Amino acid sequence: MQSIKIQHTYQTINNKSDAPPALSRLCVECVCGNLPVLCRVCGEDGSLRFCWCPVLPQELSDLLINTMAQQGVLDDRTVGVFRSTECLRLKRVCIRSCRLSAHSFSQALCSHRLQELNMSRLQGDITVSDVLQGILSNQHCRQSLQRLALTGLDLLSSSSDGRLRFSSLRALRTLGLAWTRLDDAMLEDICSLPLLDSLDISGTAVTDLTPLLNLQSHLRSLTAHGLHHLDMSTTSLLSILSKLDQLRHLDISNDRLDTDSECPLLERLEVLPVLESLDVSGWSGISDGVLEVFVEARRGMRFLGLLATGVGASDFLSGEGNLKVTGEYNITQCNEALRRYREREVLLQRALLHLHNLTNQQDIGPQPHTLQLVCAGGMQTHSESAGVQLVATACVFNLTNLELAMGVPNRLLGNVVQQLISTMRSFPNHQQIQKNCLLCLCSDHILQTVPFNRYEAVKQVMSCLSLYEDQTLQRMSVAVVSLLVSKLSVEEVGQLGAEEFIIKQLLSIVQQRASVGAVDPTLKFALSALWNLTDQTPSGCSMFLHNHGLELYSELLETYYFDSSIQQKVLGLLNNVAEVEELREQLMEEDLLEYILALLQGPQVEVGVSYFAGGVLAHLTSRTGPEWTLDPQLHHTILNRLVPTDNFIFSLFFRSFQPFYPLLDHSQPSGVQLWALWGIQLVIRQNGERERQTERQTEGRERQRERQRERY
């Protein structure tokens, strides 16, 4: 029987802004993650039904389908759970960008009394005519639907009769058909709707707006940007707009930012008397003075869209007060642009460019709201746009650099990091995007305290590392990997260590840096990453040996005799190999052991180097070590010199004391036992109470008691 998996989506609150999510959302997310366990297959189409389901409140049903859509688990099979209208009753549905067929949509959703339906940019072959046919097939749905968004869908399917009857949806108040092939005849049909008060026809094939006059008495919102097929004079256009005297919102912004089109509407003070929101972004021929007069004549104005107009620098248009403004002169204007132009790639990218310039020039302090807009509005919405991702990742760096990250809620930072990883995966061949993402990740605060999938991050950064030889990119990659690996579980490290391309790539970097005698962060981070990848992971140690790591590390010991930090990292990894009983035989090289023996003691040898040198030798000379086939005198000398003399403190991290315990067995040579006790003492002194508690584990305590009884 399959068990239900509960994903811990909530992390420890480290910031007052990190409020816990609602219990209802956590429960719904758990259901979404366990649909295969909670459902059974019904019917020939393979659709799912809940094995058992209580009658849910309509709000929870809405939350369930919307969360399924957000998490990417809504498809032709899973949408079948909503065929049960007795238990799940839907009213407000947003399934934008999901993949759904016309049949599944009709069977699962059209039997509900839907009031709001957003199917914008739905993937697959479903069309506007399919959606209309499904809605019109059910009287209750047809009579209840008030809001419908179908942005970006094809109009007609191969089986449709070529006619779209929006006029049959008599209760419809809001309709969005942006970026469809809507034509003049269809617009005329739409404009016969008696209650329609909000219409979006942006980017359509409409050539004449005259049918809008049929909505003159009740149209309150018109969004009509990007009407590049419009075949009307400016005079005719203004004549129609001026008669829509109930308009509260008008968007006639211009995405073609390289044009010199002027917007004379602002000079007509008598038109649109109740206007509250006007977007003229992308137009020229506008001045701050004209805008101020226009706004003063309409006391209810609450929004102006002025991005890419060259205006908005005056205090009156700052966007700080009741009048919200999209523009490029301050963070507030940029935030408003990011929020409002989320779906419009050209304007969004322009807003991101201005935000990047502002954050480069000003000391802005932490801006979590702006960061959220960049991540959700820019990076997620336009995940396939290299232009947006390039500027957005640069903005993320400016908004999280240095101490700025400390002022951002950890959960938000975690979402941002996951998006950065996704962006790296989507654009593997775009070096600057990769570099921007790595710059964002090179933060101790983010890498150590922020909740995100570190295992996935390591694999993605290593994939990037394998594609580029740029030294800056290499340095950042190995730094990120080195720190992240130290935060993974033993199981995750073992899985990474078994990935040959990871070990091989890191060894290649070590080889490159060592071949030129470099002593730099790239070399040291790569050595640290390899050290961590082999810690208590036999698979990683085996992969290291398989890729000729031992030969390389033997050379490093001699080449970097003058650098104790490098020697410590090299010996630390060799000690990891020596802890694996079946691999010890491969370390039995007389020249190597003699060199390690020379590092065991001496006035110039640092305690960290001595410690790991002793660890390698202790494992190889222990009772569980390989059969000694080398010089017997060397074996005798090693055992005599394993007795430690000094107890200095050095930087050391251990996941557990497990590797020491076999060396404490009473059957071990005294030198091996003494080295193990010395090692435990050093770790305890280094790491304090945490390690003292670990040392009190039953097995460790019993091993040491046995050693005391044997000694006394």
UniProtKB/TrEMBL annotation:
One Pfam family it belongs to: ZER1-like_2nd
Keyword Disulfide bond: no
Transit peptide is among the record's keywords: no
Domain Protein zer-1 homolog-like C-terminal residues, every copy: 379-690
GO cellular component, one term: Cul2-RING ubiquitin ligase complex
Keyword annotations from UniProtKB, A to Z: Ubl conjugation pathway
Entries under InterPro entries matching the protein: ARM-like (IPR011989), ARM-type_fold (IPR016024), LRR_dom_sf (IPR032675), ZER1-like_C (IPR055142), Zyg-11_UBL_adapter (IPR051341)
Region (Disordered): 689-712
Membership in a protein family: Belongs to the zyg-11 family.
Name recorded for this polypeptide: Zyg-11 family member, cell cycle regulator, like
Organism of provenance: Astyanax mexicanus
